[in-house]
């Protein structure tokens, strides 16, 4: 049987089929979209979770914290297109949070290069996002911490100023950043400054914490509280040491120390009550407790202080298993052995953390304790361990890594202690090894001294600038008032202002003289004392003794010349006309015989110049001695000729065939804030002080004779060096 359909029915069926297909397609699309949105939402939850876990592990386990941060970054980068399109605020907030977590952990692990990369990536985010200001602030605080480790303390302080957080923020992350700001500021003045400035800055910061009642707000969680307690503990400990010396506050010495001990006690109590213990903070606490035990045994007679320490020992004894303490604690017996056990416990914890900076510092501190107690045999293994650790890090660092991020730059003070300890304990029977350590000790001492000198000069200049700024404000007010009153008073003010500028200039000159005197005294302390100590050793090989004695004599001569030239009552500038040949002849008589295989040649120079003959002799003698020191074969030639660029000057050159100077060091040869190391391992000691003296002499000629006098260097590694200087030629009548 056949069924017959009309055309209209067929059209209705066709339309219905199309509608069904459209509904089905829309349903599938909606299902896929919902699934995609659900997946994206799930990934966002994971990102937040990983960031929170990274934050919570920041002081418990750095490696875990980095893993969580990397997991968050992986998901962020993988879904970046969808996240930026659908929720850019979420993306950039969590991206900066993960990068800041990585930067903080890399700092704790002394991986400064990676930390700097993380921070720069945060700075490079061009889009605005809700937490931008606070994340940028956290980056600045972490960067300031790195600069402090690199001993660039004034730059760190300037960075901290721009990284201050609003005092009344309520967000947890904001309050954590506020806590880090105060903790970092306290650490800056505890460990990287000393003297009056340290005292006043610590008092000011502690007062600010109390004034704004932010103490409770800073304790975001137990790890932040550990850090805050440690910062306060060290701050009051420093105040107890410097208050009597700088402020004549003898009565506050014990008060500050009791406050320090109370914060140490609070920290141990918090660790005892908390489920987890931060190894990093526990190690710091044991290290500080060791110092307090040692100080109490030797100098402090206060019964209250001993009772406070005994209370801490009781907490440790009740939590021996939790703290990993394997030795007996007799709370009534506070002596060196107890302090040593605490210090060794801290050392073992730092080894578990694998922070190179803390490991080397801990090893050197243990060794110092043993040396101070007269036990050199026990100290040697720790010193050698620290030395091996430093050497292995140096070898592992990339050659193309920027020098400021190299680990060695963070450890000048510690390396100085290690090399000094190795020499004191005679950790090697090889005289060449001892001499190498002695040279490295000199190098590290000089680096530390230069940074201390920079801090001193910066502080003095900063104080002068502050005074000048205050004066300028008063002057502007006076100007306005005087302008309103009368033109006569304005003239009088201008006259007073000119006198003020003269006084300012005189003050700056006085500061320069003070800085020069400080330089001389510091050079005596850092350069001459180690030589004298080294020469006093028994059974020192004659060759090493002679070499050290020669270097001592050269250092003494250069220092005495610098004192004569730079102190207020120094050698005056005597401008006369003289023949260069006469200077060559006088200098040649005072130069010791050069090394075998090296010729010293003075070319005939009958031309007459204008300047200070004695200073030019000193300059040439320094240049020639420096050339002979770095030339093992060939010649050192001294000659004079007309200066091609200006016939009003004569160019004098000291040319050698020595080892040469790398291009990157040439610009730093005449700078007092740089220490130049020779590539030739046989040449050790200072290579910049004599050249700094030469630059000073040329500057004196530029000031006192015809403008244009200068000194410069041409050199090629492996082929030799030419040092040129020009002075005024006598006018022909």
**Which spans of ≥5 residues are poorly predicted at pLDDT below 50?**
1-9, 675-688
Contiguous helical run count: 26
Q: Alpha-carbon distance between the termini?
A: 141 Å
Radius of gyration: 34 Å
**SS-derived structural category:** alpha+beta
**Envelope shape:** globular
Mean pLDDT: 79
Q: Provide the spatial order of strands within the biggest beta sheet.
A: 2-4-5-7-6
Strand content: 5-15%
Query: Percent helix among the residues?
Result: 55-70%
DSSP strand count: 7
Largest sheet: 5 strands, mixed
Write structural notes for this entry.
The chain is an alpha+beta fold and 733 residues long. Helix content is 70%, strand content 6%. It has helices spanning 7-56, 62-78, 80-86, 88-108, 112-123, 132-149, 153-162, 172-191, 196-211, 215-218, 222-247, 250-273, 279-298, 303-318, 320-323, 336-353, 356-372, 376-396, 412-424, 431-485, 487-535, 542-566, 580-590, 613-629, 663-666, 689-704; strands at 576-579, 598-602, 608-611, 634-642, 649-656, 710-716, 720-728. The strands form 2 sheets. It has a 5-stranded mixed beta sheet with strand order 2-4-5-7-6, with helices on one face. Strand 4 (634-642) and strand 5 (649-656) form a beta hairpin. Residues 1-9 and 675-688 have low confidence and may be disordered.
